[in-house]
Amino acid sequence: MTISLKDLLTLTSSLRILYVEDDVVLRENTIALLHDLFGEIHEASDGNEALLLYKKSENFYDIVITDLNMPQMNGMDLIKNIQIINPKQPIIVVSAHNETEYFLESIRNNVNGYILKPIDFNQLVETIYKVASLVKERQEKAKNQTKLQEKLEEQSLLLAENSQTVHEFLTIDKITKLQNATVLYNFLDTFVQDHALTIMLYNIDNFSFINQTYSTDFADEALFKVGEYLQYNLSKEVHLYRYNSDEFVIIFDPQIINPEFVAIQIQAFFRETPIGEYEEQPVYITLSCGIATATNPALLLPNARIALREARMRGIPNQYNIYNTHDAFLKQTKIETEWIQKFRIAMEEDRIIPYFQPIIDNATGEIVKYECLARIEDDGEIISPAHFLEAARRSGLMSNLTRLMINKSYKTFSGQNVAFSLNITNEDLLNSNFIDFLQAKQKSYNIEPSLVTFEILEDIIISDANHIPLENLHILKSMGYLLALDDFGSDRSNFNRLEKLGVDFLKIDGQFIKNIDTITRNQDIVESISTMAKKLNMPVIAEFVSTKEEFEMVKHLGVEYSQGYFFNAPLKLPINHEQ
Fold first, then answer.
1. Within 13 A of 299's CA, how many CA atoms are on the CB side?
2. Neighbours of 65 (CB within 10 A)
3. Is 98 buried (19+), middle (13-18) or exposed (0-12) by CB count in 10 A?
């Protein structure tokens, strides 16, 4: 093997050497030769001196070249001591022909190279080249390992940052920056039931009015301010969460804090403190509160909800109510629980049927379409959804109800040129095979999609937490179906969202239609909605029109369509089907 000096220098010029030799002449001659090859050379005359240098400069030397037969500490003992410090230290042994015993022992100790005395230049070059190549290979591996380690540390840091981001996304409410319902549920699930807890469930009074009167941004700012002001009024022992859209939950130990004192303090604060300004005028809000105390954390939220509902039923804002086991709402809760079982049985016995309420063109008085509404038949009695919709939702059967209504309504209008509308929910749009189900029924019953309007609630289009419902709504639009936004004005929608989604109709919340002929505020709201909708080419439907006076007023305010008991109660069959 012929090795060029250039190739050798490429490997050795940057290396640092410890050369150990007791023969002065040989040491000087060899060092003179080595100086031309290595970047830095330290020399020692025996094993003791070499070991001191090595310890002083630990991990400094790339190669150790040592004689074996030396006074005080021989080369073999030096090698053993060095390998204790650094087992991977590259070592070259210089040995005479008569030092066979040392030579064999050095082999057993994994020495990397051997040079026989007297030193032959070619042998020296070959041995140094071999060991220097090993050093270079190890250095490259170490460098790559360092880079890999740095990359792993970088990825770990990034992963930790992403994990923190995901954690915040899952646990921190985007608008209020408070801990969210997920953290609340986790707290209640893991709480040790050794003593009582108190929960205060706050709801902003008439928050839909804030959304309708001001902008969505203002409504979000109001939510942030409510969270901020609640924190301001609470001590550090209290846990505060944003629970639902306009609801907040406070949890604390009633032995430390008096719940009624907190409720009165918060009432007074919000009564005197505006949450912001709109057109340079201060805006005030009030909050209703349900309070419950229990040793069983699972009872806290349901009991607080019952107390809150009773507080709101008083019809007066800024009220709080403490849960009472003799509360009338307990009876209502029991009734709702019983309805879950009744609803399940009605589904099993196929006693849920569609009824059809006409939607009237206000200009012509003609029926333009029907809304398909679910009813339960029970021993000749027709039961409205007010009794069983919540039961369907609580039992997880809302999607089953929707599919049943689609199937029966499509069958009723099969192959006909009759327009009709159906209600669908967020649960339906989250279902991965809802679109497939719809396509199958459309084909089976020969239904033209442009004749079908799906009515949705505002909570679907205002939610930023999950994009699947919105994506499925866009798919429905692309299939040719129409969309109507039901109960418009009861939540936080704005016209910008509706236009982007491609909503075809607005159905004004019935609370604004009831007694509209005598309530000026409702007239102003409906007229504003109608005017803005016209600019976006979205016809408006007034629901729950019950009297001639209400009909004349909504028609006067520019509303295009109406439905309600003034025209017809929901019918078992559409008018043109009846004999």
1. 13
2. 27
3. exposed
Which of these, 507, 458, 461, 452, lies nearest to 482 by C-alpha position?
Answer: 452
DSSP 97: T
- Strand-pairing partners, residue 293, are 198
DSSP string, 128-170: HHHHHHHHHHHHHHHHHHHHHHHHHHHHHHHHHHHHHHHHHHH
Spatial CA neighbour of 543 closest among 488, 481, 483: 488
| Residue 166 Rama label (left phi>0; alpha psi -120 to 50; beta) | alpha
Contacts of 387 (CB under 8 A, 6+ apart): 339, 376
Which residue type does 48 have?
Answer: N
Residue 290, classed as helix, strand or coil, is strand
Report DSSP state, residue 180: -
- Token pair 């009015």: residue: 209
Find the distance separating the first CA and the last CA of the chain, reported in whole Å. Answer: 109
Q: From CA 391, how far away is CA 398, in angstroms rounded?
A: 9
Q: Which helix (H) or strand (E) holds 269?
A: helix 259-272
Position 350, amino acid? D
Query: Which residue carries 């330290």 as its tokens?
Result: 42
Q: Which two tokens stand for residue 386?
A: 């007010």
Q: How far apart are CA 84 and CA 103, in angstroms?
A: 20
**For 294-351, how does the pLDDT look when each residue is reduced to its tens digit (9 = 90+)?**
888 888 999 999 899 888 888 888 999 998 765 555 566 666 778 888 889 999 999 9
What is d(CA 579, CA 565) in angstroms, rounded to the nearest whole number? 21
**Do residues 389 and 367 touch, judged by C-beta distance below 8 A?**
no
Count of residues in the chain: 579
Map 48-61 to HEC letters: HHHHHHHHHCCCCC
Core vs surface per residue 225-258: b (16+ CB within 10 A) or e: bbbebbeebbeeebbbbbbebbbbbbbbeeeeee
| Tokens 């609803």 found at | 343
For the stretch 390-434, pLDDT in tens is: 888 888 889 999 999 999 999 999 999 999 999 999 889 988 899
Beta-carbon contacts of residue 349 (< 8 Å; ≥ 6 apart): none
How far, in Å, CA of 85 to CA of 268, rounded? 75
514, 234 Cβ separation under 8 angstroms: no
